[in-house]
Amino acid sequence: MSIKLGHYAVSNFHSEIDGQAAGYLSSFQAPDYEVDDISQALGPDIHTKKMMGSAKITEATVVYNISQAGPWLEWASTVWNKQCAEKDITIRLANQDYNIMRGIDLTACLITGIEWPQLKAADGKKHFEVTAKLQPHALKYTGAGGKVQAVLGQKAKAWQPSNFEVHPVFGLKTEWVTAIDLPKITPKISKEDHGKFRLPLRNYASIDFGTVKMEGGAAMHKGMEDLAVRILQDGHVEEGEFQDILIDMKDPALKNTLGTFTLIGCGLKKFTWAPKLEGGKEGLATGTLEFMVEDFRFEIKHK
Q1: Tell me, what's the pLDDT at 156?
Q2: What angle do CA 188, 194, 198 make, to 5 degrees?
Q3: Strands (DSSP E) along 78-137, which ranges?
């Protein structure tokens, strides 16, 4: 009966970037339109006058598999390659027959955040998914018409956060790394308001790369302690203590390199000697190093 009444699910949706099919998304959270709430107390009365303030559009959130959303990844790369670009995004929602029922157009979007999954050897059942946050300048709601059509990429590779290799760095035995982060990328957006227009103009101001944590097992713990003592305790902070961390993503056979992340200008910020010690708890003793990151690069090796 629900089909006859015109109901449809949220699972069949299609994305476009600048009018071109943009691959498959794991999820999409549309932005909201809202206004600020302005309150004004009226003298001795218990009532408060309500007014509508400035309009604003909230951020959209996109999650995509790194191997099935090439255009989304290409757009993200413009941020860390200092080629920041605005894009027009179209999302179409379809029914069970893949007939488009409604859509939303996001005009002049800026990327406001990029987050990566933690690379963790124990997470053998996860896909490598990237989360991006977008700030549109304007929205347009569209109606029904047409069909959702897309072709699954035939050259997609099986990216998993558990298949990684950290190149030797800081004199550490990095073959014993159990988990490592990738930096959260946060472009800072400047805003210019004009009395004549309802919505402000936005542009990029700067880019911030978040800190990353490297967790290592017992075999590399002595090296982690020595690094912490030399830099954090003894204060031997020289230019050479800022090094690049290279991480290769491997295929399921751990033989071929799918892509390489390069964390540029990493400096030690914090050392955690061990996780919380608890009686009766499962898990081996590890240590954690946290690094500052100055810059970031990413290269896909497969075609």
Answers
A1: 60
A2: 90
A3: 87-94, 100-115, 119-120, 129-135
* One-letter amino acid for residue 222 of the chain: K
Range of the domain at 86: 13-34+53-300
Q: Which two tokens stand for residue 33?
A: 């339109």
Give the whole-number percent of the chain exceeding pLDDT 70: 95
Residue 242 in any domain: the answer is: yes
Whether 44 maps to a domain, the answer reads no
How far is residue 113's CA from residue 124's CA, in Å, rounded to a whole number? 26
- Rounded CA-CA distance 59/133 in Å is 6
Distance CA 107, CA 145 (A): 20
Compute the mean pLDDT over every residue in the chain, rounded to the nearest whole number.
89
Kindly tell me the sign of the dihedral angle through the C-alpha atoms of 215, 132, 134, 300. Answer: positive
d(C-alpha 150, C-alpha 21), whole Å: 7
Residue 138's nearest CA partner among 72, 22, 62, 56 is: 56
Asked whether the beta carbons of 71 and 22 are under 8 A apart, the reply is yes
* HEC per residue, 229-291: HHHHHCCCCCHHHCEEEEEEEECCCCCCEEEEEEEEEEEEEEEECCCCCCCCCCCCCCEEEEE
Residue 46 has pLDDT above 70, yes or no: yes
Classify the C-alpha dihedral 279-281-282-288 as positive or negative.
negative
Number of domains observed in the structure of the chain: 1
The number of angstroms, rounded, from the C-alpha of 113 to the middle of its chain's C-alpha atoms is 6
Residue 301: partners with Cβ closer than 8 Å, 6 or more residues away: 256, 257, 258, 259, 260
Judged against a pLDDT cut of 60, whether residue 1 lies above it is answered with no
Is residue 98 assigned to a domain?
yes
- pLDDT tens digits, 206-231: 899 999 999 999 999 999 999 999 99
The reported pLDDT for the residue numbered 44 is 77
